[in-house]
């Protein structure tokens, strides 16, 4: 008897909703009952003395200065604590960043279990004034004592060399840029899947002081100024590395995941989207930009490893861009000279190339992506399902040149051709007035070298947002057939019609059509996606551009049974034994 195969079907990745229903998950569990907030009057005055004088060393342990690293040699650590009493006590851990001799920066989600059991902590967080660094009151800080663990093994093949110290949360702040981004950029997003107590932690940062490490007498302001001086804002398409402790488990301390900066969005570019993999417990972990010389520079902190959009799991990690976040905090406290320093890295050459060739295609209530093939004739390529509402709905093509300032151009497009429903090649050809095309746009470069399994590749398109620059993901060609290319890039709704390109040259290898979803619709596989090879598209499209004869595009309507079976993800069993 033939083995029963795991059933998959194609999930076409254009978006068909005007609004996005999204929940960012800080934790893999939900709350059954919301904690009622007590009407406790708390005063959180920002003390000048707190920022200008060293905090008291409350250590009762032996000083161990050799345990942690020198000033400003940042590294990822595990921050853990036990909450509850007796048999009901549980341990919880998350990631953090050792930023100085005896200082740890981490994310507010670390307080998640504590606020479920203690309304005083919930009220403290809820009443934080955005942009103000607040000294944590003693009645709160005594409940936020942490164990800090660092793996000091110098060789990855060596056994773990875990060093530990005790720490206490001494300061907290709510980033106004993150708060503004969550409330405005994600205005149409819904966070209903999270409790109120979880949602308020997203823009919150915690500063922890190690109690058993001899410090250098630094104030909070001095520590943050030194941290700010080493930070950089990465460019889209640049390589990054996440260092974290997945699931807060000490076995996974200092785990590394690499990817690229997929997009930078929000108020003052405060949120970085990356395709680097992260899971619960990675919140608070450092994110480093990797330069061409392999130098690593701290740029961000993981704030949300899991999210959902329109019921679709989002396989991008949300990272706080630390440079602008700290600038706003320091600006509020008189450190103006730091704000003038420009440390914005340029977008990668590949991202810049894709910005000039990848477009938003809107038709009806949804949108997808498109590729500029020939500027002289105004020819644009996209997927048939992206423009399925045409001609009932008009098609608009948008080019984003500067998402933060709302820059860009738009023009109406005419549908020249689309493959009929049920045909395997999901292709549509659009035409716009060449005179209305932005002068900054250029034709995408078409790859001529054969595509090989394992080739480095990237995708670009507009998942979740149609008002930002293209989102980039890096992966590789995992399978290459004459009629289909499969990649491991992260592809989500809204990316249909975007290009698969060779990394790092930007030569087009194919057009994204769909990713895989289980037959029960229970799981979407964003990193198992399919594209039409450029070898299938090039001949008919070149002939159309040369002659203007739409009939030459009809050869894209393949009736080949092998092509049909491949695109239906149906494999004929080779044996019945």
TrEMBL record:
* Entry keyword tRNA processing: no
Question: What family is this protein classified in?
Answer: Belongs to the peptidase S1B family.
Kindly list the places in or outside the cell where this protein is found, as annotated in its UniProt entry: Peroxisome
Q: What is this protein called?
A: Peroxisomal leader peptide-processing protease
GO annotations of cellular component type: peroxisome
Q: Name one GO molecular function term.
A: serine-type endopeptidase activity
State its role.
Peroxisomal protease that mediates both the removal of the leader peptide from proteins containing a PTS2 target sequence and processes several PTS1-containing proteins. Catalyzes the processing of PTS1-proteins involved in the peroxisomal beta-oxidation of fatty acids.
The UniProt record lists the EC number as 3.4.21.-
Transmembrane region(s): 12-35
* Post-translational changes noted in the entry: The full-lengh TYSND1 is the active the proteolytic processing of PTS1- and PTS2-proteins and in self-cleavage, and intermolecular self-cleavage of TYSND1 down-regulates its protease activity.
From the UniProt record, report the name of the gene that encodes this protein. LOC107273374
């Amino acid at each position: 008897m033939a083995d029963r195969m795991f059933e998959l079907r194609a999930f076409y990745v254009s978006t068909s909703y005007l609004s996005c229903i999204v929940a960012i998950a800080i934790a893999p569990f939900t709350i059954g009952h919301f904690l009622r907030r007590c009407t406790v009057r708390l005063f959180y005055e920002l003390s000048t003395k707190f920022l200008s004088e060293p905090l008291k060393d409350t250590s009762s342990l032996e000083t161990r200065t050799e345990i942690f690293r020198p000033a400003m040699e940042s590294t990822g650590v595990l921050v853990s604590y036990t909450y509850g009493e007796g048999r009901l006590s549980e341990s919880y851990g998350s990631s953090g960043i050792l930023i100085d001799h005896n200082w740890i920066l981490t994310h507010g989600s670390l307080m998640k279990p504590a606020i479920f059991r203690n309304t005083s902590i919930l009220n403290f967080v809820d009443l934080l004034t955005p942009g103000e660094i607040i000294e944590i009151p003693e009645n709160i800080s005594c409940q936020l004592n942490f164990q800090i663990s660092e793996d000091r093994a110098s060789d990855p093949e060596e056994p773990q060399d875990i060093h530990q110290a005790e720490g206490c949360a001494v300061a907290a702040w709510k980033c106004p840029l993150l708060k503004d981004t969550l409330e405005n950029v994600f205005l149409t997003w819904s966070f209903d899947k999270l409790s109120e107590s979880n949602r308020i932690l997203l823009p919150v940062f915690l500063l922890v002081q190690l109690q058993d490490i001899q410090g250098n007498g630094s104030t909070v302001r001095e520590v943050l100024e030194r941290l700010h001086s080493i930070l950089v804002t990465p460019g889209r398409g640049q390589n990054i590395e996440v260092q974290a402790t997945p699931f807060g488990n000490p076995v996974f301390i200092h785990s590394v995941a690499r990817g690229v900066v997929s997009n930078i969005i929000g108020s003052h570019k405060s949120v970085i989207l990356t395709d680097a993999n992260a899971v619960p417990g990675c919140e608070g972990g450092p994110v480093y930009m990797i330069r061409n010389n392999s130098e690593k520079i701290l740029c961000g902190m993981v704030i949300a490893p899991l999210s959902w959009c329109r019921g679709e799991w989002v396989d991008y990690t949300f990272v706080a861009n630390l440079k602008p976040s700290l600038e706003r905090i320091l600006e509020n406290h008189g450190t103006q000279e730091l704000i003038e320093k420009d440390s914005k890295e340029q977008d990668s050459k590949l991202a810049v190339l894709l910005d000039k060739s990848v477009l938003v295609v809107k038709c009806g209530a949804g949108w997808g992506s498109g590729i500029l093939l020939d500027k002289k004739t105004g020819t644009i390529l996209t997927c048939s399902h992206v423009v399925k509402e045409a001609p009932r709905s008009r098609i608009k093509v948008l080019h984003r040149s500067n998402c933060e300032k709302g820059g860009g151009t738009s023009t109406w497009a005419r549908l020249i051709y689309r493959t009929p429903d049920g045909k395997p090649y999901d292709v549509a050809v659009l035409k716009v007035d060449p005179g209305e095309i932005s002068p900054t746009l250029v034709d995408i470069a078409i790859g001529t070298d054969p595509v090989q399994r394992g080739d480095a590749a990237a995708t670009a398109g507009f998942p979740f947002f149609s008002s930002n620059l293209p989102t980039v993901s890096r992966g590789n060609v995992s399978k290459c057939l004459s009629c289909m290319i499969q990649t491991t890039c992260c592809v989500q709704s809204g990316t249909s019609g975007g290009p698969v390109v060779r990394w790092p040259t930007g030569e087009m290898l194919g057009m994204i059509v769909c990713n895989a979803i289980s037959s029960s619709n229970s799981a979407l596989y964003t990193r198992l996606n399919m594209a039409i090879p450029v070898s299938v598209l090039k001949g008919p499209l070149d002939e159309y551009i040369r002659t203007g004869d739409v009939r030459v595009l009809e050869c894209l309507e393949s009736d080949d049974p092998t092509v049909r079976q491949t695109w239906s993800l149906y494999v004929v069993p080779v044996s019945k034994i």
